[in-house]
Write a structure and sequence with these properties.
Layout (H helix, E strand, L loop, with lengths): L10 H12 L26 H10 L6 E7 L8 E3 L12 H12 L6 E6 L3 E2 L2 E2 L3 E4 L8 H13 L4 E2 L3 E4 L34 E8 L5 E7 L10 E5 L6 H5 L1 E2 L7 E2 L3 E2 L5 E6 L3 H15 L3 E2 L3 E3 L7 E7 L3 H10 L3 H11 L20 H7 L8 E2 L22 H16 L22 H11 L5 H6 L2 E2 L22 E8 L2 E9 L5 E9 L7 H12 L2
Parallel strand pairs: 5-7, 6-8, 7-16, 8-17, 11-14
Antiparallel strand pairs: 1-2, 1-23, 3-6, 3-18, 4-5, 9-10, 9-15, 10-11, 12-13, 18-19, 20-21, 21-22, 22-23
Helix pairs in contact: 2-13, 3-7, 3-8, 8-10
């Protein structure tokens, strides 16, 4: 979970990293690339012919495009600048702002904690009170880590809970919203809403495995969901795989039962179907209860929402992956809810509290200590209690900060931007931190200012590594597969963004000369997604410099 996949690199890619990381003389300037106000700015006529041709072919006018291509050094002029100061919707490119702000303010070793508390003593394996699970905003509190934490509790003697299972999400204050309000796709995992106790992305994974006999595919669901009935099998059908999800005829719109009214094509082999749970407010309780029961545990009471009592005893604290690993998922794979979790963390009045707990603090400014305690390869959790639970005195609950809101997060990001990155004219409107918004705005100038700023930061390698490698991985893994970007492939680190009326790309490019460039290009137009190839041609143009 915490390790990065092996990546194919080129000599240019290696040279890019070595050059950028070793260069410490890049001057920072406020109001970077104010090219639109100078006589040296490029015009539409300066657009590479390949780009103009592709835009014309898909019916996107030059007026809908903003682009800046410039050396990474802030004191050098742009090579190309068109509509550079025009604020536009960046879609998921907004994640660059969120992750950069987090790296700068929290540090790459920052971790979140999910804490398990007891309101009573544990005697003979019985918790004589409630179990309280307090969310700290962990963006990736997934099944494997939840299971590891609960297994630890059981190994230390806790078998059954005689009270309630209480879920504490009070670290974040988020208005209730319809998961499908953005685009009508409520069951799409990318529409999952954030939560201080975000359990497994509020999604289930349906797994289908064809059997030789008796002509059925077995169906399993992960995580096990308490109170959810799912058919154990579905009938097989011959023929091409095709759109197998539609062929299943799935009825997934009820919180208590899933049905399949169709058939599963045998030719598909094993398949997985991630689905956002239809009742997100019930998800955490059903999933946590289901995992606990699958390990042999019981809960006498009910699952309910609440806050952690001040006299509760801390049983276990489960740390997240470090921030550097979280932002790799956010940027390479454009995970929306993880980005929003990071964004909201910035809005906490004291975010370091979610990385510390009474009696066993993890200090975020102590990189070595934090890294050792959050290494999931060796430690999936931190157990605080000795075997004798009941011997511990009550401990004060560490949560004293004000809950985070999107508004408080935007304020923190704006303050960070004005103090570190750019001018008021370049301040972005990041809305929810993920780019899954119709209201987000940033200029190409602003994005270039951000990219140049990050190239000067001590944690730049973490930011750089989080971006997809053109033609290799992430959301740009397929870039240039048709041979259209021979120089950019393998030599560009990029973040893309796409909505129905937005396409955007931004990142770092190594030119044929060995020089490093920053690229920011955004199109806002009803046919914007058709212009993606034109933006890739801009990246290729930079790679040819």
């Amino acid at each position: 979970m915490g390790t990065r996949p092996l990546k194919r690199t080129t000599r240019h890619t290696i040279d890019t990293m070595n050059h950028i990381k070793s260069t410490s003389l890049y001057p920072l300037a406020s109001g970077l690339l104010a090219c639109a106000l100078s006589s040296g700015c490029a015009t539409a006529g300066d657009l590479p012919s390949a780009v103009q041709s592709r835009l014309h072919k898909v019916g996107v006018p030059i007026e809908a495009l903003s682009v800046v291509i410039a050396p990474v050094q802030a004191d050098l002029p742009a090579l190309l600048s068109i509509n550079a100061a025009q604020p536009r919707n960046p879609a998921s490119v907004a994640k660059l702002i969120t992750t950069a702000a987090a790296l700068d303010t929290l540090g790459p070793d920052f971790v979140w904690h999910t804490n398990f508390y007891a309101t009573g003593n544990v005697q003979a394996g019985l918790l004589l009170g409630d179990m309280v699970i307090q969310g700290g905003g962990d963006p990736k509190f997934v099944v494997e880590r939840i299971t590891a934490a609960m297994q630890t509790l059981r190994a230390q003697g806790l078998k059954n809970i005689m009270g309630d299972l209480v879920l504490d999400s009070s670290a974040f204050s988020i208005p209730t919203s319809d998961a499908g309000s953005f685009d009508g796709e409520a069951l799409r995992p990318y529409n999952v809403q954030p939560d201080a106790l975000l359990v497994n992305f509020k999604s289930v994974v349906l797994k289908f495995d064809p059997q030789a006999t008796p002509g059925v595919a077995t169906v399993t669901v992960e995580p096990p969901m308490a109170g959810l009935k799912v058919p154990s099998t579905v009938r097989l059908v011959k023929g091409r795989c095709g759109d197998w999800r539609s062929k299943l005829g799935g009825d997934l719109d009820q919180a208590s039962v899933f049905r399949f009214n169709g058939r599963f094509p045998k030719s598909c082999g094993q398949q997985e179907w991630p689905v956002a749970y239809i009742a997100p407010d019930q998800y955490a309780g059903k999933a946590l209860m289901g995992i606990w029961q699958s390990l042999g545990g019981t809960v006498t009471g009910e699952v309910r929402i609440g806050t952690t009592p001040t006299n509760a005893k801390l049983l276990l604290s489960s740390p997240s992956l470090p921030l550097r690993d979280i932002i790799a998922d956010v940027n390479k794979f454009s995970n929306n809810v993880m980005a929003q979790q990071v964004f909201l963390t910035l809005g906490l009045s004291n975010p370091t509290q979610i990385a510390a707990f009474e009696g066993h603090a993890v200090h975020t400014n102590n990189a070595a200590k934090t890294r050792s305690t959050s290494n999931l390869l060796g430690h999936a959790f931190e157990a605080i209690l000795p075997p004798a639970f009941a011997a511990l005195p009550p401990r004060q609950v560490p949560w004293t900060t004000q809950p985070a809101t999107f508004s408080s997060a935007r304020t923190k990001v704006t303050q960070w931007w004005l103090s570190k990155v750019g001018t008021l004219a370049d301040v972005p409107w990041v809305d929810n931190g993920s780019g899954l918004s119709r209201d987000g705005r940033v200029s190409a100038n602003g994005l270039v200012a951000l990219l140049r700023h990050e190239a000067n930061q001590p944690n730049f390698s973490d930011f750089f590594d989080s971006l997809g490698i053109a033609g290799v991985d992430g959301t740009v893994s397929r870039m240039g597969r048709d041979g259209s970007t021979p120089f950019a492939s393998g030599n560009a680190r990029l973040k893309t963004g796409t909505l129905k009326d937005v396409t955007a790309v931004a990142g770092y490019v190594t030119g044929r000369s060995g020089r490093q460039y920053v690229v920011a290009a955004l199109v806002n137009h009803e046919d914007a997604p058709k212009a993606r190839a034109a933006l890739y041609q801009l990246v290729e143009w930079a790679a040819n410099q």
